[in-house]
Write a structure and sequence with these properties.
The termini are far apart. It is built from 9 helices and 2 strands. The chain is 71% helix and 3% strand. It has helices at residues 7-27, 31-55, 60-88, 99-102, 109-123, 136-155, 160-176, 191-204, 214-235, and strands at 130-132, 180-182. It is mainly α and 236 residues long.
Length: 236
């Protein structure tokens, strides 16, 4: 039995393992560590597909394992971060009554819509060089970055819970939307072929100065650029 055909699946399992630890860190309130394990999972997710292609050992089993691992690391883990934050850190007005105890569970819509996004990706043949809808790793980084970098500020807002709920609904929409979103795959280095990618990268570079909030800024910029390009394309 050839060992090399199991290597990509082993890397995928490392992604899944990272996602599980991210969930544990979230329950402990260590949101920064949870974010780091999501980033680690994203690194494994990048390499499992690359290794499978290099070794020519891609398989239907690997595709299913990859989707399962991704929904844990990029769906359940960020949902758990948001749930724990909304449940333990945010305050709710008295007029919400019993709904105050229910609202944090809306965070798990992130996991649900991430699963829908991943299933859609597996059967959608259009998503080869571009994405349709927001990729789950980007969504996971957005949420873990937001809670880690801006959680203390959101707590000071009178309607912090409303902001979080609105962002949950908005990100769920973007996950399963039909909005085309460019990928960062370069087939060559020419300006004409990669103009959008170069502009995105150049504008993103200064955003790394925001430290923990850098992913929030970069992914927001990615969404805005994708939406603008989608409108421009539809008008032609």
């Amino acid at each position: 039995m050839s060992i090399k055909r199991h290597i990509p699946n082993a890397i995928t399992c490392c992604n899944l393992f990272s996602g599980c630890i991210a969930c544990v860190m979230a329950f402990k309130g260590a949101f920064d560590l949870a974010m780091l394990f999501i980033v680690l999972g994203a690194t494994f997710d990048f390499f499992d597909g690359m290794v499978a292609r290099l070794l020519h050992v891609s398989s239907p089993l690997g595709v299913q394992m990859d989707s399962l691992a991704d929904d844990v690391t990029f769906g359940l883990a960020p949902a758990t971060i948001v749930f724990c934050y909304m449940n333990e850190a945010l305050s709710y007005p008295d007029y919400l009554g019993v709904f105050a105890g229910i609202l944090p569970y809306a965070a798990f819509l992130i996991a649900v819509f991430s699963a829908c996004r991943l299933a859609k990706f597996n059967v959608d043949k259009r998503q080869t060089n571009t994405f349709i809808g927001l990729p789950t790793p980007a969504n996971a980084l957005f949420w873990s970055s937001l809670v880690t970098g801006a959680g203390a500020w959101i707590q000071t807002l009178n309607a912090g819970w409303f902001l979080m709920l609105g962002l949950i609904l908005l990100s769920s929409f973007f996950l399963v939307s039909e909005i085309p979103m460019f990928s960062l795959k370069f087939k060559n280095l020419s300006w004409e072929s990669n103009k959008v990618r170069y502009i995105f990268i150049l504008v993103s570079l200064p955003m790394f100065m925001l430290a923990w909030l850098a992913p929030v800024a970069i992914i927001t910029w990615y969404l805005l650029l994708s939406v603008v390009l989608s409108f421009r394309t539809s008008e032609k």
